[in-house]
Request: fold
Amino acid sequence: MTDAAGGAAPFFIVGSARSGTTMLRLMLNAHVDVSVPPESRFVVELYEQDEVDVKATLARLGAHHRWAAWELPLELVQAELKSSRIATYEEVMSAAYRAYAKAQGKTRWGDKTPRYVEDIPLLARVFPSARFVHLVRDGRNVALSYADVPFGPKTVARAAALWAKRVQAGVSTGRALSSGRYLEMRYESLTEPGRTKSEVERLCSFLSLRFDARMLDFAEESKSAILDRAQHYNPHLGKGTQAQVRQWETSMPAAQIEMFEAVGGRALDTLEYARRYPAPSLRARAGAALARAGLPIGRLGTTRE
Reply:
């Protein structure tokens, strides 16, 4: 399968925020052939129709607040396009990624924008050869991780609702794609001692990439690709996959665990994460409902992982 210009099939890394997608981006950037730029968001936000005016679309791309982080002149994107007037939306967006990859000395491109987990149907249609890697992480640990950043939900119930919404969207639409286009990976497996290499090899096989051992040393090989913001909110990025992080089993109060499972239990079941409370109490369910309505019930702590 190839992209709009006949190159190797592109890929999108998606998932709930705080699930390890930045780490996976750095792993892939450590590969000698692969380039994954900073989060885009503009691919979905700028989409209006399949055939577009090139000049107008490039102007909108250059004005998008996420484009600046790529530090790439629009002229290099224009140079990748065969037509200077009319092209498909896929061709224009693919040209941007190819230009970025070339600037990095790479030949294969992908994207890491977690929230695209809710946009898989659109992206799968616009990029008919694209593959999707859905990285999932136990939602209770995702909730703990939200406590360490100034963005995202601040109560366990709202964290559970957002996590469940996104992972269920990814699972339902991803699994519905044709064979060979969707891969689910677990953060826990990717970071488990003794399993990282086999998981990276599985990823490479799915993406039709030869395994590159440098992916296992991503903290060193891709350190230049770590954005200041990412480093600040993901302090373990420079420590590799074995960095110790807080775990919900020991760091989350029992009442918050039960409240999370009252909201996100079905998603935990779908992904085969064991629940502590298979039948959450009425009190937990009521507290979760009140928290989702805006009351400060079950507020997440602020201790760093």
Observations:
- The chain has a mean pLDDT of 91.
- The chain has 15 helices and seven strands.
